[in-house]
Specification:
Layout: H1 6-15, E1 38-47, E2 57-69, E3 74-83, E4 86-97, E5 102-109, E6 119-124, E7 127-136, E8 139-151, E9 154-162, E10 170-179
Antiparallel strand pairs: 1-2, 1-10, 2-3, 3-4, 4-5, 5-6, 6-7, 7-8, 8-9, 9-10
Length: about 180
């Protein structure tokens, strides 16, 4: 029988505190957006001059309708709102990636019919954060989409822009949603 070398035992005991615990099973976030199904009244504040340091917002009121696709692993969101610049419509597709345990959010405005780059992320402790990169006024920016203060009949959505690699964030769109009772 061969004895274990003392050097191996010493190395193992020294490294033991550094060995990570077995990773917990990743959170299955397939139903993280279930709160969002239904019809909502939305009050939207949109930054009129994003990334300018200004605090001037354009306010809109409208309806958001979210329906389940693929048994909830995808959502289709339709937004209609009216404000001082007239009627505005948008559509968002949310898709869940079960391997990555992450959601993607892809938005298009009826104004131009172009899909924006998807934001990707997940929910933790009752808050969802998805991130993307885009071009704004000729510069590459980061975008953070956040769902918070989630209750049965209300939630808060905010989209923030960063032009300094995420060191600072400026609100670009703020929406408070309240469920429309049937």
């Amino acid at each position: 029988m061969r004895l274990i070398q003392p050097v191996f035992i010493f190395a193992f005991l020294v490294a033991w505190p550094l060995v990570p615990a077995f990773a917990a099973e990743p959170h299955d976030g397939a139903h993280d957006f279930d709160f969002n199904f239904g019809t909502w009244h939305t009050h939207i504040k949109r930054q009129s001059k994003a990334l300018s340091g200004a605090s001037e917002f354009i306010e809109l009121d409208g309806t958001v309708t979210v329906r389940k696709v693929w048994d909830g692993r995808a959502l289709l969101e339709e937004i209609e709102a009216d404000g001082p610049n007239g009627h505005w419509e948008g559509m968002t597709l949310f898709l869940y990636n079960p391997q990555a345990h992450q959601w993607s959010q892809t938005f298009a405005s009826s104004k131009n019919g172009v899909l924006q780059p998807p934001a990707i992320g997940s929910f933790k402790d009752g808050k969802g954060e998805l991130y993307s990169q885009d071009t704004f006024n000729g510069r590459t920016i980061l975008i953070r989409a956040t769902w918070s203060d989630i209750k049965a009949d209300s939630h808060h959505f905010q989209e923030d822009f960063s032009d300094d690699g995420g060191k600072s964030w400026e609100p670009a769109l703020i929406a408070d949603l309240t469920r429309v009772k049937s």
